[in-house]
Design brief:
The protein is of the alpha+beta class. The protein has one domain (3-183). It is 42% helix and 12% strand. It contains seven helices and six strands. The strands form three sheets. A two-stranded antiparallel sheet has the order 1-2. It is globular, with a radius of gyration of 17 Å. It starts with a helix and ends in a 20-residue tail after the last helix. The model is unreliable at 71-75 (pLDDT under 50).
Length: 203
């Protein structure tokens, strides 16, 4: 393991522990609010591909009501998203449980976002290179447009990070992420609660 990876892991553990301790009251309030408005479970868990395609369970605060059949179909995500859930997404508070993923070593504070398993067969070989590093709570794509840019641009930014990652770049991304979250920039794409689904590379 090289120097960069050792220091990055130390920063991940330190940052995750510090964040969990400082934000514990906030996470408690969010958990209680979710339980009151939506019931159990408070957390949402889903298998996601991590470094080298290795699977792990990501944890987030639940923002949607449970899937329910309606006229033979599943209610669309836009209709399942609650008012509280929308607030949690806009403020990125729904992502706080991912600090546990960082502490476990499944994720890093900085890296390409872990995406849905359905997308794996759709990646080009170049886009799939985003899995050469651990996924992150935030990343280069998140401070350069987040959900308000195309999937192709997002993946190009992810791969750029893979090729240019450094401790200084990670610190820059963390600082700019804090600013972006405060401003609420790029949280959703026009016409979507967050972003549209990836359906393969643009022709």
């Amino acid at each position: 393991m090289n120097f960069y990876l050792i220091v990055k892991r130390i920063l991940d553990i330190t940052g995750a522990l510090t964040g969990m301790l400082l934000l514990a009251p906030v996470m408690l309030v969010v958990a209680v609010a979710i339980h009151i408005s939506m019931g159990s479970p408070v957390l949402f868990s889903q298998a996601r591909p991590g470094i080298n395609g290795r699977w792990f369970n990501i944890y987030k605060f639940r923002t949607m009501t449970k899937p329910a059949p309606e006229l033979g179909t599943v209610v669309e995500d836009e209709r399942r998203l609650t008012r509280l859930g929308n607030f949690l997404r806009r403020t990125s508070l729904d992502e706080l449980p991912e600090l546990w993923n960082v502490l476990k070593g499944d994720m890093s504070l900085v890296g390409p976002r872990p995406l849905l398993p359905d997308y794996i067969p759709l990646y080009t070989p170049e886009q799939a290179r985003r899995h050469e590093v651990k996924p992150g709570i935030t990343g280069w794509a998140q401070i350069n447009g987040r959900n308000d840019i195309s999937w192709d641009d997002k993946f190009k930014l992810d791969v750029w990070y893979v090729d240019n990652r450094s401790l200084m770049l990670d610190v820059r991304i963390l600082v700019q992420t804090f600013i972006k979250v405060l401003k609420g920039e790029g949280v959703s794409k026009a016409g979507h609660v967050t972003t549209d689904r990836f359906r393969g590379p643009a022709p």
